[in-house]
Amino acid sequence: MKIEGKKIFVDTSAFLLFLHGKTNDLTKEIFHFAAEGRCSLITTSRCVDELLFKEMVIIAKTKYGFGNKAVQKLRRNPEIVKELGKILEEKILPFLEYYRIEILPVKVEWVLEIPKLMEEFGLFGNDALVVRAMQSRNLVYLLSADSDFVRVNFIKLLNPSS
Fold first, then answer.
1. Cβ-based burial of 112 (10 A; exposed 0-12, middle 13-18, buried ≥19)
2. What's the first-to-final CA gap in the chain, in angstroms?
3. Which domains does the chain have, with CATH numbers?
4. In the chain, what percentage of residues exceed pLDDT 90?
5. pLDDT in tens, 108-141
6. How far apart, in whole angstroms, are the C-alpha atoms of residue 114 and residue 125?
7. Does 25 score more than 90 pLDDT?
8. Lower CB count within 10 Å: N or C terminus of the chain?
9. What does the H/E/C string look like for the chain?
């Protein structure tokens, strides 16, 4: 696939896989091109929020040995959450900047259209929001490990998994 000049929406799953070195060569090339300004990566504030949350949980599990109840343990340990906030600030924000990720704000009208899109495509709400964001920019390429998006006729799904 020719990547140069393409505009690609990036779902949370792709960000996480890339950050943890679990992506295929195409995904590595996409991010490399984005860093050089040779393609554009777009996401939403909702996906960035989800990325920050999921990465916080991953770090809590690895750094503090929090198991399956990591979220509950984090709620009881705001000092650890503060520390993780600093780690995320130093890790994720420069990552988003380095790869020139454009972050679209989620609009109220998009949120109100979620049920209609769920009905049309059989998607969960957060995935319907991705579809709506993509529609807002006439995007067709989606970098995501979520195979549910194959049900959306205008999306060309790019699986980031290695």
1. exposed
2. 16
3. 7-158 (3.40.50.1010)
4. 98
5. 999 999 999 999 999 999 999 999 999 999 999 9
6. 6
7. yes
8. N
9. CCCCCCEEEECHHHHHHHHCCCECHHHHHHHHHHHCCCCEEEEEHHHHHHHHHHHHHHHHHHHHCCCCCHHHHHHCCHHHHHHHHHHHHHHHHHHHHHCCCEEECCCHHHHHHHHHHHHHHCCCHHHHHHHHHHHHCCCCEEECCCHHHHHCCCCEEECCEC
CA dihedral 127, 88, 90, 16 (to 10 degrees): -40
Q: Measuring CA to CA, which residue among 85, 88, 90, 104 is closest to residue 10?
A: 104
Cα torsion angle, 10, 14, 19, 23, sign: negative
Is 139 in contact with 42 (CB distance < 8 Å)? yes
What is the Cα 21 distance to its own chain's centre?
Answer: 15
User: Which among 5, 10, 20 is positioned nearest to 158, based on CA atoms?
Assistant: 10
- Tokens found for residue 7: 């505009």
CA distances from 87 to 12, 80, 94 (A): 18, 10, 11
Q: What is the pLDDT of residue 68?
A: 87
